[in-house]
Write a structure and sequence with these properties.
Helix content: 40-55%
Bound molecules: pyridoxal-5'-phosphate
CATH topology of the largest domain: Aspartate Aminotransferase, domain 2
Largest sheet: 7 strands, mixed
Distance between the termini: 56 Å
Strand order of the largest sheet: 2-8-7-6-5-3-4
CATH architecture of the largest domain: 3-Layer(aba) Sandwich
Number of strands: 13
Strand content: 5-15%
CATH superfamily of the largest domain: Type I PLP-dependent aspartate aminotransferase-like (Major domain)
Number of domains: 2
Length: 366
């Protein structure tokens, strides 16, 4: 007998655990014969997509017999003019998720190192593991990225590091001063990826402006997504801003039609819908305030969040409470894969969804 299929897989793949996504609504309905299910698990925009994006998506549907523009000309141009940077500094991804993997595939050899944080978005680790490189994980400080620890962990072999700002699943951020100190302390010949998936929700005044670093020619990659405040998670589209030399390398391996014709059109419209963004960020702040207040009344500890979700400490009962919520048709995100077994991550929902969650928690499980 020859090798099994498992043995035929790359050694990196044999060690892989698949990503655990938030449970889809229909899956819970099927599994538990429930008709009324809400999902507060995947940091989607509870208030829906921009109406302008919807209209634009509908209009372009007539053209889906055609391949999309592989370079996403109009969308990249729209993004570049918004940030007042050259179009050559923009590239698109099938979600930011794809861009994380493309950066890893483009740069990492098995002898390279990456530096990531404990409790950081897990896709950075997975990207490193896929490439078989060495992964250095530094501890957090108060559930926040510790850039001082990052700087200490960097060696001559470090090629990439990933900073989620703000971070998922903790919701915490690093400020402008910390980033500035970090950027001036690291070797010039490495690339720092700043994942800013939640940037539009941030209200902190000392949040850094990474575009300035890009304008100064720093070797950074800024990742943005249309999946969160723009409400287009199902269309899969995100973008990277980076020096042209980095974009050129990513584009060499980027699948030519990685973003769909519908996603490109909808994203263009969504980026222009400032009214929708303002509305969603306001509703998010109100929902956050309400939930924080209710969690505290229940004696639960929360982590200060700059995002559209909140990390709540339930202690050893977290897994049981998650089960109870599922049986009541409420999906939240348990975090054993993040080493945060005592916590649940809860996405801010519509006001009635938030109230339903609070009612369920008050129903004797807290
Ligand atoms: C949600 C999220 C993303 C992006 O997701 P896509 O849907 O793939 O664009 C990226 N980084 C973090 C930290 C996220 O939470």
């Amino acid at each position: 007998m020859g090798k099994t299929i498992y043995q035929m897989a790359r050694k990196e793949v044999r060690g892989f655990k698949p990503y655990q996504a938030g449970k889809p609504i229909d899956e819970l309905k099927r599994q538990r014969h429930l008709s009324d299910v809400i999902k507060l698990a995947s940091n989607e925009n509870a208030f829906g997509p921009s109406p302008l994006a919807l209209k634009s998506a509908q209009k372009i549907l007539r053209q889906i017999n055609r391949y999309p523009d592989p370079g996403g000309y109009y969308l990249c141009k729209r993004i570049a003019s918004h940030w007042r940077i050259p179009k050559s500094q923009v590239t698109l991804g099938n979600g930011t998720d794809e861009l994380i993997e493309l950066v890893a595939k483009a740069f990492l050899n098995p002898e390279d190192e990456i530096v990531i944080s404990q409790h950081a978005f897990i896709r950075y680790r997975m990207a490193g593991e896929l490439m078989g490189c060495k992964i250095k994980e530094v501890p957090m400080r108060s559930l926040t990225h510790d850039l001082g620890a990052f700087a200490k962990a960097i060696t001559k072999r470090t090629k990439l590091c990933f900073v989620a700002n703000p971070n998922n699943p903790t919701g915490t951020y690093v400020n402008a001063r910390e980033v500035s100190r970090f950027m001036s302390s690291i070797p010039k010949d490495m690339v720092v990826v700043f994942d800013e998936a939640y940037t539009e929700y941030v209200t902190a005044k000392d949040y850094p402006n990474m575009i300035e670093y890009l304008r100064h020619g720093k070797r950074i990659v800024i990742l943005r997504t249309l999946s969160k405040i723009y409400g287009l998670a199902g269309l899969r589209i995100g973008y990277a801003l980076a020096p042209s030399s980095i974009v050129e390398i990513i584009d060499r391996i980027r699948p030519p039609f990685n973003t769909s014709i519908v996603a490109q059109a909808a994203a263009c419209a969504a980026l222009d819908d400032y009214a929708h963004i303002r509305k969603c960020s306001k509703l998010n702040r109100q929902g956050m305030k309400y939930l924080e207040g209710e969690f505290h009344k229940l004696g639960l500890e929360t982590v200060p969040s700059q995002c559209n979700f909140i990390l709540v400490k339930f202690g050893p009962r977290a897994a049981r409470i998650n089960e109870e919520l599922l049986s009541r048709g409420i999906i939240v995100r348990p975090l054993p894969d993040y080493g945060l077994d005592e916590y649940l991550r809860i996405t801010i929902g519509k006001p009635e969804e938030n109230r339903r969650l609070v009612r369920a928690l008050k129903g004797g499980y807290c």
